UniProtKB/TrEMBL annotation:
InterPro entries (alphabetical): PilP (IPR007446)
Pfam families the record matches: PilP
Lineage: Bacteria, Pseudomonadati, Pseudomonadota, Gammaproteobacteria, Oceanospirillales
Native organism: Vreelandella neptunia
Signal peptide (residue range): 1-29
Keywords of this entry: Signal
This protein's name: Pilus assembly protein PilP
Transmembrane region(s): none
Length: 184
């Protein structure tokens, strides 16, 4: 026979009373007041909160002391006088040519989605930001910098863009669009 040791009855009773006192301390005396306040809020009419108009301070005119001087956003007179005319130069784009559909978008917004061979010619499929897919061939224009398609291969297309600078005039730069398998 095994003997179990138990705490005396008085100790159990004292522990029970202590636990009851601790749990009684968690009851808040102002709980009925809180319930009354919440009931008042629930019964009040809903709707829009009141509009609070904020008054702005009066504006004052400020005179700019340097308005007669050269604008800091324009080149100095020495550079402006020696600058090249936008319509001159061997590389100047033909302004009389009617623009093609893909010239409305910057080149970085256009996406090469595929290439294929049609009637012995390589053709590229270009997705534009407006959701359309356009087929292009060598010689077509695309991008806002007068880009002309120079070559189409299986994985990329090469575009020759024409950009204008004040000092050098029209310059050509080569840009490639590559098929990206991760693009959706």
């Amino acid at each position: 026979m095994r003997c179990q040791r138990t705490a005396p009855y008085g100790v159990k009773k004292a522990a029970f009373i202590a636990a009851a006192l601790v749990l009684t301390g968690c009851v808040d005396a102002d709980l009925t007041q809180l319930e009354g306040t919440l009931a008042d809020i629930r019964q009040s009419p809903g709707g829009q909160p009141p509009v609070i108009a904020v008054t702005l301070p009066a504006s004052h005119d400020v005179s700019y002391l340097y308005s007669e001087g050269r604008s800091p956003f324009l080149p100095p007179d020495a550079i402006a006088q020696e600058s090249v005319n936008r319509s001159e130069g061997a590389l100047a784009p033909d302004q009389q040519r009617s623009p093609e559909p893909l010239e409305r978008f910057p080149l970085q917004d256009l996406r090469l989605v595929g290439t294929m061979r049609m009637a012995g010619r390589q053709v590229a499929l270009i997705a534009s930001p407006d959701g359309n897919v356009t087929s292009v061939k060598e010689g077509n224009y695309m991008g806002t910098d007068y880009g002309r398609i120079a070559q189409i291969s299986a994985q990329d297309i090469r575009v020759t863009e024409r950009v204008f600078t004040q000092r050098e005039g029209w310059q050509e730069r080569q840009v490639s669009l590559v098929i990206n398998e991760n693009n959706e």
